[in-house]
Fold Maleylacetoacetate isomerase.
Amino acid sequence: MQLHSFFNSSTSQRVRIALGLKGLAYDTLPVNIRVGEHRAADYVANVNPSATVPALVDGDFKLGQSLAILDYLDQRYPEPRLIPLEPHLRARVLELALLVSCDIHPVNNLRMLRYLETELKATPQQKAAWYRHWVGEGMAGVERMLARSATGPWCFGAQPTLADVCLVPQIGNALRMDCDLSAYARSLAVYEHASQHPAFVAAQPQRQPDYIA
Amino acid sequence: MQLHSFFNSSTSQRVRIALGLKGLAYDTLPVNIRVGEHRAADYVANVNPSATVPALVDGDFKLGQSLAILDYLDQRYPEPRLIPLEPHLRARVLELALLVSCDIHPVNNLRMLRYLETELKATPQQKAAWYRHWVGEGMAGVERMLARSATGPWCFGAQPTLADVCLVPQIGNALRMDCDLSAYARSLAVYEHASQHPAFVAAQPQRQPDYIA
């Protein structure tokens, strides 16, 4: 398999974690979103109509949207399963993963911050406040979900799931942006636990072939 | 079942459509997000830690995040199935649904527009430009996906799927916001087709008990 990926894209990182957890070998095809390579005509026409990273290539099949890729991998390579089959646990895992994926990440990614700067003339302080605001809103929800289920060391028990796959890169992102996460102790405990796991470590931005210091 | 819902929340509308397609009766519990009812302490603590709409109540089980709810309903009440089981079709359906749900909706919802106005002092023109920009970016991707699969009358063939459940409310939303969608003919054709289907019609904002003219 091949993965079109950018080193500090947290959606790319989700897929890298899942590939690692499942022990699936892949080649990284770097797409530098800072210079707009995800918008190149050939990439959009032939790889990923979303014009985003990541995109998975599995034989003849090319797929964008990280959560669709994660579901596809879980269907096709189910060991270890990241989206549980038991309906209530499955729902809780998806609920947390989607809170991260719909309510936190999309409003804080590169294209948002660029639009704020170029079109709305937001100052660096306003951009930082924007980022922190939505991280705070979302992480408060994550923390409430973890308090309700009250397990550990992972979000939902003894094994990592899609919830961890989505949460851990988001926390890493927030820490890089100097967000104060001290109010989210359960989330940080999951993050610290994941930071010892080989698949999570190998997926970190600074370990990618396209890393830019 | 009961659905905590707001009449013109497109995430609530997704769930209303799915309940209708599956022929499941439910009571609407209105949550007026314009006046912050989704942030009420009791709702957040006891119903939906995401502090959003919708939230489904199925017996003792309460669940937030519309896509988690839609997956749950599809698992528990699989007829008619909205998320196909065949891996490649399933992946395409999820890819389109997630493009709408992650790349279009979250950046254009009420809380975004309010933040732009109150914190960044965006003018009505700037808010409208923001909305149209992200709709345009996302709808171009949707249209490319539909061109690639080239089916109809629904996004992926003869039956509605999760892709339609997500796309149709988003298009309705964009039309209410006076976006020019004429470049997205395939998407509009799906929307027009859906507008004749009883489950899609019944889920429309103006038909909800909490509708505000």
